[in-house]
Amino acid sequence: MRRREFILALGGAAAWPLMLWPLVAHAQERVRRVGIFVGATAAGDAEGQARVDAFRQAMELLGWTTGRNLQIESRWGMADPANVRKYAAELVASAPDVILSSGTLSLGQLLQETRTVPIVFVNVADPVGAGFVNSLSRPGGNATGFMQFEYSLSAKWLELLKQVAPSVTRAAVLRDAALTSGTGQFAVIQSVASSVGVEVSPVNVHDAGEMERAVAAFARSPNGGLVVTSSALVVRHRELIVALAARHKLPAVYYRRLFVDHGGLVSYGYDLLDQFRRAATYVDRILKGEKPADLTVQAPTKYDVVINLKAAKALGLEIPPTVLARADEVIE
Predict the structure, then answer these.
(1) pLDDT digit string (tens) for 252-263?
(2) How many Å apart are CA 331 and CA 266, to the nearest integer?
C-alpha cells in the first residue's frame, strides 16, 4: 500500500469511534418506566386513549420519547372495583419509576398497594378529604397531582340548571355517597338551593337499577331537573344517565363535557385533557429527582361550559342568550 493511502485508511479507522459515539451514547441512555392507571374507562375507550396520548405528547415535548428513554405501561379499571384492585396490584408489582393515576377509585387502590412508588394523580375531587394527601400545599406522602375542582364549583351547577331551565323547582342530585367528594359536592349544592329557588334531593348511583327507579319516581312530579356530580360510577353509567334524562324530559347539568358528548344538555367543568398534559410536568420533575411530597396539589386553570342545542330542542328549551354567550362550545 502506498504511504498516502495508508495514512488515509488509518485516519478513517481512527474516526470510526467518534462517528459511533452518538449511537453508543443513545443505546446506553437509561430507560425510565411510567405506569398509567385509568380507573373509570376501558382500554378501547376513545376518550380515555386521547387523554393518554395527550400525556405522551406532553412528555415528548419535555424530552421523553417512548422506545428511547421512556417506557409506558397502561392499565384500565373500567370503574369496576375488582378490576381496579387487580390492575393496581399488577401495576405496582411491575415496579415503575412513577405512576400516573386518573380518578379517585384508582388512586385509592394504588395507595393501598404502595406508599413508596411516586404517584401523580389527575381527576380527583377531594384528595385531602379522602386522605390521599396531608394538604394541598404540602402533600407529604408519595402522591401529588391535579384535583378536579374546589367544592365551591358544585354550587354553579345548580345555578346553571336554573338559568337554562327557569321552570325547574326540584333537582335530583346524582352522587356516590360512598365517597367523601360525593357528600361534599351535595352539601355545597344543598347550601345554595334555597337562594336559587330549587329543592334538592340526593340519588345514589351505586346500583344502576336503584338509580333508574329513583329517577323515574322523581320524574313523576313536575318541574324537575338533574345535577350529576363527579364520581367514577357516574362515568361508568353515563349512557344510562343521559338516557334517563332524555326519557323523563329532565334538564340536566353535568360536571364534565363527556356527558354532553354523549347527548347530555349542558356541562360546566374542568378540562381533563389539560390535566393529563400538566401531569407530564410533574412526572418529568419526579423522574429528575423531585419528590411528590414537595409538589403542591394544583387546581384546574381551565373550566369549560359546553351546551348541546339538539338536547335542548328535544326538551323544548330555549337556551338564554346570556348563557350561550358564556359557552366555550355549542354543539349544534
Answers:
(1) 999 999 999 999
(2) 10
